Amino acid sequence: MKIYIQSASTDTANRIKIARTTNDPKLLSRLAYDPNRTVRDIVSKNSNLPEYAMQQLAKDPSIDIRRRIANKTRDSKVFSILAKDIDEEIRLIIADRCEDQSVLEDMIFDDSEQVREIVATKITDPEVLAMLIEDDSPSVRLAVANTTKDMNVLKALKNDSDEEVSSVAAKRYANRNSSRVSPADRFRGKHDGKSYTDWSVSPFEI
């Protein structure tokens, strides 16, 4: 049996019932545009809500609905919409849940220091990291120092004006740099350039 929604003749109670019980993605998508906030709120809770309906609800006037969608979606388009939301909590949710680098890169200049801190731990592009290490906030730069694997970025942060940032960067740079040295090279360094792999020198002469 098909259910037809005609907002002019179908009462709100009926639309609420449909929003709560239907698993039809087309119906849910239409109800995402419903003029009644309660209907849209119930639609946003429906476990069968398709991503293209979430794109509409991501622009809903209700902060509660947008927050719910932020916690629900896995869609990059929805993340992209909500990454620009006026509500800081929503942007924090997106920074935490989103793994799409293009969306995260758009958030590196966010007004919220907390948002930028989270984003700084997830960025991998060296050019974007180069912008983050110029952030005015030491906590954002510290987030980069604590998480990046980029040796050039760590090298730059060794000279940071903030003592904690420079200390963390220096330690991680030294640790990562030593891990890149082969056991044979470390052995040579300990024995003034002589090693068992140098067959011109007897092991007993070391």
Task: Walk me through the topology.
Layout: H1 12-21, H2 25-31, H3 37-45, H4 51-57, H5 63-72, H6 76-82, H7 88-97, H8 101-105, H9 113-120, H10 126-132, H11 138-147, H12 151-157, H13 163-179, H14 183-190
Describe this structure in words.
The structure is a single chain. The chain is built from 14 helices and no strands. Helix 2 (25-31) runs parallel beside helix 4 (51-57) and helix 3 packs parallel to helix 5 (63-72). The radius of gyration is 27 Å and the shape is elongated. The protein is mostly helical and 206 residues long.
- Roughly what percent helix? 55-70%
- The arrangement of helices and strands along the chain is HHHHHHHHHHHHHH
Q: How confident is the prediction overall: mean pLDDT?
A: 87
Q: Main β-sheet: number of strands, strand sense, barrel status? A: none
**Total DSSP helices:** 14
What general outline do the C-alpha atoms trace? elongated
Brief account:
The protein is an all-alpha fold and 206 residues long.
